[in-house]
Amino acid sequence: MIKSVLVANRGEIALRVIRGARELGIRSIAVFSEPDRRAPHVLHADEAYPIGPARAADSYLNIDRLLDVARRAGAHAVHPGYGFLAERADFADAVTAAGIVFVGPAAETIRAMGDKTEARRRMEAAGVPVVPGTSEPLASAREASGVANEVGFPVVLKAAAGGGGKGMRVVRRPEEVPGGFNAAMREAEAAFGDGRVYVERFLDRPRHIEVQLFGDSHGNIVHLYERECSIQRRHQKLIEEAPSALLGEEERHSMGAAAVRAARAVSYVGAGTVEFLYQDGEFFFLEMNTRLQVEHPVTEMVTGVDLVEWQFRVASGQALPMRQHEIPLEGHAIECRITSESPFDGFLPATGVVGELEIPGGPGVRWDGGIARGTEVGLHYDPLLGKLIAHGAGREAAVRRMKGALRELTVGGVSTSAPLLSLIMDEPDFRAGRISTRYLEEHPELFRAEVPAATRRALVAAAALLEHRAGPGRASPRIRRAATPLSRWARVGTATDSPRPNGR
Amino acid sequence: MIKSVLVANRGEIALRVIRGARELGIRSIAVFSEPDRRAPHVLHADEAYPIGPARAADSYLNIDRLLDVARRAGAHAVHPGYGFLAERADFADAVTAAGIVFVGPAAETIRAMGDKTEARRRMEAAGVPVVPGTSEPLASAREASGVANEVGFPVVLKAAAGGGGKGMRVVRRPEEVPGGFNAAMREAEAAFGDGRVYVERFLDRPRHIEVQLFGDSHGNIVHLYERECSIQRRHQKLIEEAPSALLGEEERHSMGAAAVRAARAVSYVGAGTVEFLYQDGEFFFLEMNTRLQVEHPVTEMVTGVDLVEWQFRVASGQALPMRQHEIPLEGHAIECRITSESPFDGFLPATGVVGELEIPGGPGVRWDGGIARGTEVGLHYDPLLGKLIAHGAGREAAVRRMKGALRELTVGGVSTSAPLLSLIMDEPDFRAGRISTRYLEEHPELFRAEVPAATRRALVAAAALLEHRAGPGRASPRIRRAATPLSRWARVGTATDSPRPNGR
Amino acid sequence: MTRSNATSRPGSRYVVSLLGERHDVEVRSDGTVLIDGRPARASLASTNSAQSAGRERVQGIGDGYSLLLDGASFALRAHGGRGGAWHLELDGRCVSAEVLDPRAHRIRRLSAKAGADSKVAPLRAPMPGLVVQVAVDEGQEVEAGDTVLIVEAMKMENELRAPAAARVKRLLAAPGDAVEKGQLLVEFAEAGEA
Amino acid sequence: MTRSNATSRPGSRYVVSLLGERHDVEVRSDGTVLIDGRPARASLASTNSAQSAGRERVQGIGDGYSLLLDGASFALRAHGGRGGAWHLELDGRCVSAEVLDPRAHRIRRLSAKAGADSKVAPLRAPMPGLVVQVAVDEGQEVEAGDTVLIVEAMKMENELRAPAAARVKRLLAAPGDAVEKGQLLVEFAEAGEA
After folding, report:
1. Is B291 a catalytic residue?
2. Which candidate in A178, C78, C150, C184 could, as Cys together with C132 as Cys, close a disulfide (CB 3.0–4.6 Å)?
C-alpha cells in the first residue's frame, strides 16, 4: 500500500481524499495557496506546504511547484482530486517521471479521453453510440457554420480540451454560430490553454446519465451503476442521484455494459466515469472523465463502496476488492451541491465570509464540506462549498430526507444554492422524476416562488417584534434615511424581479 | 399513518424523533423547559410549547402539563424518546386514556418489564437464562446481607424500578452491604420515586451485549441483531458497536432467539431491547428496555433500517416492513457518546456554553446531536451532547473512521468525553475486541497517557509563538501573578494527577 | 415564554411593509401580537451565543432568532438596517421589511411619491470580475435583452444585458478592466433621448 | 507563510514550562524557531473568524490556530492567561504552559521555592450539586481514600474522599446544602495536628 500521498487540490475534495488516506494509514500531504492557509484541508492533513499565491495558475496548477513539494515531503503518490490538474496528461507524465505514483489512469488514457474528438473516434470504434457531429476540431467560425447546417440545429459547440461546461455554447440559429464559436474558443483558451472547438448535434431535452467505472492494473473492469445528473445550470450539475430516477433494469444493464466496453477500449485503470446523454430510450456517449467525480458520494451511498479507498488500493497495485456481481445497489441517494451563488439573482457568484455554519445530521445524511466558520469565499476558485447527500430506502424517502436536511443546513455570510434546492425537493416534476437537463429553464416558477401565507405572517411578526425590542426612537419619523437594500435580500415575489434561471 | 406527534423529550433524541416525523410528513410538536427555549429540538420542530421550569419534575416529567399541551396542539400521538417518562407505565396509561396514541409498547408491558423482579420471573418462565439472585425486593440492609452471602460475592444491588446505572451498587465484601444498600435505595428513591432494591450475583468481567427487538400489533416479532455496549463508566455506556466484536454466528443466533422468546412472553409491540450479560460463552438476561435506546443508530447503520420510522409505522397499526430473514447485517458500526464530562478528572460533570462546534463529515460518518453554538450545558439534564457514529466495511475500518471523525470533532466551551474516546480507538485491547464492562478500570494508562514527543514539541512551539505575537511586556518580570489554572486544562501526565477512572 | 416582549410599553403599534404589502401590527405586553387585527401568541428568542450567553458577539451576518407564533416554530436570521429596516432570512428566503410607527409611515409615503423616477437603470457589475468584451458603442441604441458587456467571474462568462430599450449614454468599462461589485459600467438614456 | 511571526524583533528568546519540563525556545525573524536548540520552520495562523475576517470575536473559549511545524499540521485552540500563561488544547489534550523571558523565569523560580506548602489540600466541590451525606465529624481522623462527603449532581452520587491521611479541621457543608463548583467543603489539618 502507498505510504504517503500529496493531495494536489483544495476544498471539499482535498478533505475527502485526506480522510480516505487517514483511514488507510496513508500520510496525507496538503498544499495550499496563500488565501487557503487556514482552510480545512490544511488543518486536517498530516502535513501542509505553501505553493504560491491565490491565482490557480501560480499555485494549484503549478506543476513544478507541486512536484517540488512532493519531492521535499517524500510523497509516495499524488492524488489530483477533480478539476485543476486531474485531467492533465502532462501532469500525470511529470508525476510518473519523478518516480511518484499518480493516483489515476495512465497519461495516455487521460490524453486520449481528454481530447474530445479522439475520444469520439475511439468510442465509435468500440461500438459505443456517439452523438452525430464532427470528430475533428473546427478551424474557423465559418467551418462551424457549415458543419452545424449539416448536423442540423440546435448544435452545441464544445471545447476539445474541456469539461464541466466551460467552453461550451448551445446555438439554436445559424446566425448565432459565429458569436458562439468565438465565446467557446475564448473560454476554452482561458480555462484550458487550448482553444480548439468542435460541434455536435444538440439533444433538446436529454437526461444526463453517467456510469461509474473502476479498473485495476490486473485487467479487471467493473461499473458501479449509474448516476443521474440532469439538474444543471449553465451546464454545471446541481443535483445528482443514484440510481437514475426512471432507468429500467435492462437499460441500466446495457448502459453499464457500454461503459465497461468504453473502459476496455482504453485499458482503463482507476476511477472513471462515462457520461451519456439519454433521450427517448437512446443513449449517446458524451465524454469520459478520467478521475473521481464531484458526485461520487451518491454511488458510495448506494453501493457501500468507498471509491477513494479503491483508488488508493488500485494505485498500490491491488486488485479490485469486488467482482461485478458482488457490487450491491441499495436504496437511493441524492446529492445537492451547495455553491456560493445567488440562485434567485441569475446564479451570480456570491462571496463573503462563512459565519454561522450548521451542518444537518441524523440517519442517512452525509456532509462533504470544504468550509468552516471564518472561511473566506472569494472568486479565485470553484464556488462549491460542500455537498449534502441523503440516502433512503427509495427515491421518495431520499428526497424527503434531503428536504429536511436542507431545512437544517445554515451557511451564514454568503448566498448559496440551498434555498433553490429546497424548492426543487418539493416541485412535482422533480418528485415524479420528470427531469431533463432543461429542468430549470422549464420551471421558471421556482425563481418567483410565492412566500406562503404562514411564512409571510411569521416574517411580519418577527419584523415588528425585532423593532419593538430595539426600543423606541428607531421607528420614529426623525430617522429619515430609507432602508439600504442588502444584495442578498431580494424583494422576493415582487413584480420587478424577473426570473433569470440561466443568468442571461 | 399518525398525523402529528408530541415529542415528550429534549436533546438529541427529541431532534432524532422530530427528523423521523418530518420525513414521514408527521407534524412534530416539541415541548421545552425554560432553559431549553433556544434548543435545537425547539428550532427544528414544526411547533413548540413551553412546559415549565428547568427542574425535570416540573417540566419533562410533568405528565399533566404534557397532556395539556398534547390536547391543545391536537397531537395524534406521543413519542417519549428514552429516559424521562419513556418507561413510566402510568404515563403510557394517561396518554392512552386521553385518546392519544402512545409510541411504545402497552402500559402492562412497560410495567412488567420495569419491575426488575417481575421481569426476572417472566423471563425465567419463558426459558430465558437469568443471573442468580433474588426475584423479590429486599426489605432491609440485613436481608440484603443474607441474600448476598447466599448468592456469593461480588453481588450487585439494583433499583427494582431502575435503569441506566442509577440506583445501582456493586458490593465486593460483606461489610460493604449496608452502605451500598442505603446508597442504592436513596438514589432509586430520588431517581424513580421507588426505593425498592434487589440483589444479584455480580459477573466479574462480563460483556454487555443487547439485542434490538421489534414487534407489531399483528403478532410479528423480529430482532435486528445485537449491540455490544461493554465500554462503560459508572455503569453508563460510553461506546457501542454493532455487531458485537467477538460473537460467533451461532451465539448471535441463539441470543437473538432468546430475545425474541422474551418479547413473545410479553406480546411485545414496538421497539425494545433485551440486555444480556455475556461471560465465557454464557449469557444472562439483565433487563428489557421498553423503548428506543440511545445507541439505536449503530443498529440502523448495519441493517439500513430506520428504527424511528418503524416505531411510527407500528404505532400507526402497520405491520413490520421486513421479516426476520430479510433484515440485512452489513459492515460494522461504532457509536461514541460525546458527553459533557471531564474524563481525565474522574468523569466529573462539566458545564459551559458551546462555542465553536465543528461536526465531522465524509463517508460513513453520522452525527446525532442536540446542541448548537450557544447551547448552555447545565446540570439539569443528561450530559449527552451528541453521538458520533461511524460505519465501515468491518470493525477495523469502522474504528479507523471513528478515530478520524473524533480528531475532526470540535466542541468548544465545555469539556467532553471525546479525548478519552480518541485514545480508546488506538488502544490495542479495544482494537482487538478484548473488552468487558471493566475495560476502563483495567486500562488506567488511558488516564495518564503521555503526550507524544511531536505533540509536545508542537505545544512548546505554539506557546512560544503565541507569547511572541502577544508582544513584548507580557513575558517580562513586572507581571508577577502566577498562571491561574483553568479547570479544563489539567496538568496532563504529571505525577500529581492520579487517574480516577470511575470517579471514586 | 414571552418575557422578552413584555416591556412596560403596552400595545405598541407598527406598520410593517414587506414584499410590497402593508401590515398593521400591534405588539402587546401580554405576549400576544395583533397582525392585521388577528391575534397570536408570540415569543421571539435569540439563538446566538451573544444574547444567550453574553460572551460572544456575531456581527454583520445577521443574528439567529427563534420565533414561536401560536406554537408554530420558525428559525430565522435577522439583520437590522437604518430607519426601521430589517433584513430577514427564513426557510432560505431573504426578505427585507420596513417597520415604522404609523406616523413615520405616513411621512415616508408622502416623500416617496415625489422621488419617482422613470429613467432606465444603469448597468452595474453584479459581481467582481474581468470585463471580457464590450458589445456596444456610446450612442448606440439597444433593445431590452441585448448583450451589452461580458464579464468573466469564476471562469464563467456572464453576459450583461440591456434592462430596457435605451441608448448607450456612457461606457465606463473596457475589455480587460477588473471591476468591483456594484461598479458603474454603462449609463443609458431613454431611446431617442439626447 | 510566516509573515505573522516575522516581526522586527529578531531572535526573541523564551523559557516555556510545560508538563513539568522546561524548554528553551528562540523565535527568529526568518520564520524558524529553535526548540531546545533544534530548528524548525514554523507558521502559526489563527483559524477564527475574528482574525481572518476582522468581523467576529470569539472570547473565553479559546481561539483556534493552525500550526505548521516543518510542514506537520496541528490544529489547536489557545487561551491566554496572565503572566505568560497559555492554556492549549491539541488532539483533545488540554495542557497549560508558562512562557517567560529567561530573566522572568529565574525570578519566578526563586519566589516559588519560598512558598512551598506541605499541608493537606482542603476538599472543594468539584461540581455544582447537592450535599447528600457527610460521613465525618469535625476532629475525626481520616485515612487517604476515606469517603468524606457525598455530593449528588446530574442524578449521580459522587463520593468525595480524603486526599491524604489527615484530621477533619472544619466542616463547611451539611446534608441538603446546594454547593457551587469550587466551594470549600472540608478543611483538614495534618493527622495528629491540633
Report:
1. yes
2. C150
